[in-house]
């Protein structure tokens, strides 16, 4: 077997599944960091790619021809696998921030902003949860909310219906649980729509036939 074929075989057998799993798990904290960072204007790069490696081959911050920036941080995946989800979140943030600081030093970015963002993620207790969309019923009696919880190992979408004027909970129903990567869950977040005074649906963004319906009567 030629070397390139051996490398591909090893990746398919021993690393592909782990890489996909790891890529999914980091999105929870990466998305939370970006949420707290907000708009951050950069002229040097479109995106920072932080590569987690067993041994750093180069401390160089490399810019690619397509406008991305690559940087390496040392990472022990075997040790990471044994951690519980809450500890994983903390380690992911530390490694993400380590990579960001390496790039920020080279490009002379505003360090206090990046540090405040890092602290904000910690102060939020690493919780990535938010109301994606709200809609009031035609009768103006109820409000429907799509509540999203982005975890290490899953993305949970819940329909919450309350009485509009008293905020009293009427219904709390999980619509779906998806992989924690944007490619998996964003497609489901299409449109929130009341189809009557007591029925509300969430439509898939690309497949209008795919929907989740909740009735309160």
Tally of strands: 10
Spatial strand sequence of the major β-sheet? 4-5-6-7
Helix content: 25-40%
Q: What's the helix-strand series?
A: HEEEHHHEEEEHEEE
What's the helix count? 5
Instruction: Give the biggest beta sheet.
Output: 4 strands, antiparallel
Structural class of the helix and strand makeup?
Answer: alpha+beta
Low-confidence stretches: none
Gap from first CA to last CA: 65 Å
Measured on Cα atoms, how large is the radius of gyration? 21 Å
Q: Report mean pLDDT, rounded to a whole number.
A: 93
Strand content: 25-35%
Task: Give the overall shape, derived from the CA principal axes.
Answer: globular
Explain the overall architecture:
The chain is an alpha+beta fold. 37% of the residues lie in helices and 30% in strands. It has helices at residues 3-37, 77-81, 85-107, 111-123, 182-185; strands spanning 47-53, 62-63, 68-74, 129-136, 142-150, 155-163, 169-178, 191-194, 199-203, 211-215. Strands 4-5-6-7 form a four-stranded antiparallel beta sheet, with no helix packed on it. A three-stranded mixed beta sheet has the order 1-3-2, with helices on one face. A three-stranded antiparallel beta sheet has the order 8-9-10, with no helix packed on it. A hairpin with a 4-residue loop joins strand 8 (191-194) and strand 9. The longest helix is centred in the N-terminal third of the chain and has 35 residues, at 3-37. It starts with a helix and ends with a strand. The model has no long low-confidence stretch (mean pLDDT 93).
